[in-house]
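Listing 4. Sequential folding, example run.
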Amino acid sequence: MMHPVREHHPLALVTWCLILAGLLCQCAATGDPVQQAGNQQVQPDAAVATKLRSGDGAEMVYVPAGEFPMGSTESDVALAMESNAGWTDDWFAGEVPQHSVHLDAYWIDRHLVTNEQFARFIKAGGYEQRAVWTQQGWDWKTAQQRVQPQYWESPPWNEPNRPVIVGWFEAVAYCRWAGARLPSDAEWERAAGWDAEKQEKRVYPWGNEWDPGRANTRESGRQQTTPAGEYCPQGQSPVGACDMAGNVWEWCSSLHMPYPYDPADGREDLEATGTRVLRGGSWLNASVEARTTYRLPPFPGDFILFDPTDGFRCALSER
């Protein structure tokens, strides 16, 4: 059975033709960001703790230390399969079993890294700064003669306020340049769906019911990326992070390895070979993949971009 998410075959051309046709017919999004989800007016959470990162001025939100239940239960997976005909348990194997994980306090970007932000990295000579690249990343960049992201000159993906589309090596390099790092698999999920105050785990960043007005996924019909933060605050997570469901898949630092999550088992070795975790779903994917527990299954090509769907945000340890 073919993976229902990433289409790496000739039929993908048909998909892209339909998408491009939609782009030609669709008016460019302008004006104020969406402020309503369904019929309910949503207000920003004044209690969200934020700070600006010194490296690049990005706004970050605080995630306190503590334990949270990472992953899904078997009943969670059964419910997701029941609601999505044609999906088998293979596609959900990466999110079980549910287990308890303790994390120290950290900060995570409120928004996805945008093209405007990434342009500063390029202007500062980021593609030539050996110190911010992993060895594999440097070798890849050199072999590819890469001096900018793959979709850097391709509209609409390259608009300044949209999330930058990059591979994992580039995401690592940017975060290092900005004085930060990629979030781990566990840190990403904790920031996306754990309400520490209520001690509740959310299916989606905003709650347990799907709402196309809170995230840019296939159901939303946008057919392309949207400006970072357009679905905020109505789609924000318990800690105030935006776009953690939909828009673009988000790179994590971790290798895609079975649960339970253990940062000491090699999965956080940035120089190790293997597929890295992608989280959150994208504009091209269904809402079932935008759940806070979903991990995109490993796929051939690892760091190669097949679709303009992969972006990132950075994280920073509290101490």
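-- end of first protein; second protein begins --
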Amino acid sequence: MKKNERAVHLTANEFLASGRNGMNQQVASARWQFMLALQRNVPEFFERLRDEVFPAFTLMPKPGYWRTGLSFCMWQARSDLDGQLTPILMKWARRFNMEGETWILEGALQTLSTWNKFPRCRESLEILGFRKPVCVQGLVREDEHAFHFEDEGWDPTLIRFPGWRVTARKRFEAAIKQHGQQMRALAKDRGGVPAVVRASREHFDWLTLYQCGDATLESIAKDAVYGDKTTISKGMHQAARLARIRIREKSRKLKSQQGHAFSTDLVAGFVHSVSGKVARIRNTE
């Protein structure tokens, strides 16, 4: 694969405008690239969400249990006060060293909700619930970034057309350059930060393998098309910075199959608990 084919496009912007929570288009795009890399390299991430968490999610009889736009804390306060689903969800996230990433937990809940409504999405392991849109206010108003250029035009009785064309183009290029300088300065003054337009696809692959796939730098370097351990480490750290993901400690590995058994027991206990509640509700009716 050629170098330009390994690049992924993060944003078309030169400067980034961020929301109150610091989110911007670049971070959102980088996180989506991380999810696509998970889909390529660690499909177990989504398979376990379906097999270990989804059965418990479907037993929630409360309407509006999850709504698009809710934060994880709001969901816990409104829908999971008794902590029925949170331990199961956190156990799944911890299995892949992602329990500290709130956006992952929110994406999982959105995905579970979609799977519950649309079985075909669950069967195909559709993951669009992890792709959160970003809406932020622009840094420069429409009337401020409007570009105007005027010229007296060509008078054939005063100058030949090639000579006028050269002069007009020079004036036009000078006006464009000045406009660019003014808009960049305005964006910086209002808190805009330079954007990273492209990133390496491999960097996100390496990050998912190390963070969620129980891989070491040595094992990744062994199978990588290019790069040694230092290159792998620098690349995945760059991807982590773009997506604002905290990389796991070197000594921390993913949970063993014993964790899987524990998670299965947790789901079974939860199913029994919720079934009892549903039965009591029906009896009171």
